[in-house]
TrEMBL record:
Keywords: Repeat. Residues 142-173 are annotated as: Disordered. InterPro entries: MORN (IPR003409), Peptidase_S1_PA (IPR009003), Peptidase_S1_PA_chymotrypsin (IPR043504). This is Uncharacterized protein. It comes from Kipferlia bialata. The keyword Repeat applies. GO terms for cellular component: cytosol. Transmembrane segments: none annotated.
Length: 413
């Protein structure tokens, strides 16, 4: 398509040198989702703005190197994963095309560094894990450890001198005990970030408490969950409480629902604060088979917030996708995010209990066995555990549509 003599809309452009772009255009510039192949053999798939990579995208070099994550003005910037041709892998933060911020670098032999980076070098607080399991914590500057700032943790019989590429000598920490690594020593990781966005949904009938999961969405006062998680509470006029992992409790003051797409949004009585995270969808938020994700929630039978890895294993028409992760009924309504970028992709919408499969078996003998009182104990045990590797996620676009149509009402703007 053309507008005012310039390409505008969707189209394909082949350059004289053999490279090719296919995707969106705005006033003659590549914009929106698109893909490009180059004469070198390199390929890029993702978002564009003003003719440059901008947003979520994947670049595949002919050499075998692959970067997938966030781009800003043609450079890796934000969160991303880079797999190098020699087998090295970096996951974490990027700035201006360099590894800068917090990230983890893993070598093929199992050695890895997790901590702070600056201009592609280890710089700041970090933890280095050797191939034999020994762990060193300390301060790095321009890729080298500073003398006297680290000790060996869980060491083997042979003393550890230094990571392979760091010739700087070290001094062991004094004292008989060395504290193990703590999440608090490293302020950012995607699992904890997701946990800091997740809520426990609690409501009570006359004799029972009911549970589910939810998450902060787009605004510090807005929480998203599955409609089926709260439908009975809403229909019966029961009070709903949203509780954080550290015990903060919030009450909803208004809500909107979408029964057809199984989602609900609540306005909290006050905004979340502190280290709480508000999740947002990426511009390219539709999941695809093979994408690595994280999901969080409060599984039935366990009084704890758990974060799991899961891979999208296929589409679940018309509104969702299958997950191969461990999903229990209490996870319903919890968030599903891209494991690299942290963008929210979906909401946990369903699961399959193993007990339901076993109870479906027919036959006289099976009926007698199910009448045995001991079967109830087995069924309760199975009901607390995850399914046979099948869960269902709902596309976040339906939650986003509900928010965009109702956010002024929810926020009383």
């Amino acid at each position: 398509m053309w507008r005012n003599g310039a390409m505008h809309g969707y189209g394909t452009y082949s350059r004289p040198n053999g490279s090719k772009y296919k995707g969106g255009w705005t006033d003659g510039m590549a914009s929106g989702p698109g893909s490009s192949t180059y004469t070198s053999g390199d390929e890029y798939y993702g978002e564009w703005k003003d003719g440059r990579f901008n947003g979520q995208g994947t670049y595949v070099w002919q050499s075998g190197k692959v970067y997938s994550g966030t781009w800003v003005e043609g450079l890796e910037h934000g969160r991303g994963r880079c797999a190098y041709a020699n087998g090295d892998v970096y996951r974490g933060e990027w700035r201006g095309g360099t590894r800068s911020g917090t990230g983890e670098f893993t070598l093929p032999n199992g050695e890895k560094y997790f901590g702070e980076w600056k201009n592609d070098l280890r710089h700041g607080r970090g933890r280095y894990t050797m191939a034999n399991g020994d762990v060193i914590e300390g301060e790095w500057r321009d890729g080298e450890r500073l003398r006297g700032t680290q000790g060996t943790i869980n060491s083997s019989e042979d003393p550890v001198e230094s990571p392979v590429d760091s010739p700087v000598e070290t001094e062991e920490l004094e004292g008989d005990e060395v504290s193990p690594p703590s999440l608090l020593a490293f302020p950012y990781n995607q699992h904890q970030r997701l946990a800091n966005a997740t809520f426990h949904v609690i409501w009570k009938t006359r004799h029972h408490y009911h549970h589910g999961s939810a998450f902060s969405f787009r605004h510090p006062c807005i929480v998203a969950t599955g409609y089926h998680v709260v439908s009975k509470a809403l229909n019966k006029g029961r009070s709903i409480v949203f509780e954080t992992e550290d015990g903060q409790r919030f009450k909803p003051v208004r809500h909107v629902i979408d029964r057809d797409h199984d989602c609900a949004l609540f306005r909290l009585d006050r905004p979340v604060s502190g280290d709480r995270v508000v999740l947002r969808p990426g511009r390219l938020c539709r999941p695809f088979r093979g994408k690595e994700t994280l999901l969080a929630g409060y599984p039935h039978g366990y009084d704890a917030l758990l974060v799991h890895k899961a891979c999208i294993s296929g589409p679940h028409p018309p509104h969702g996708f299958y997950l191969d992760g461990s999903i229990n009924g209490g996870n319903s309504g919890g968030p599903i995010v891209d494991a690299v970028s942290g963008d929210v992709l979906g909401i946990v919408g369903g699961h399959r209990y193993l007990s339901e499969e076993l109870m479906s078996f027919g036959g006289t003998r099976g009926d007698r066995e199910r009448d045995d009182p001991r079967w109830g104990k087995v069924e309760r045990m199975l009901a607390k555990n995850a399914n046979c590797g099948i869960g269902v996620g709902r596309h976040i676009e339906y939650v986003d549509t509900l928010y965009l149509a109702n956010h002024r009402t929810l926020l009383n703007e």
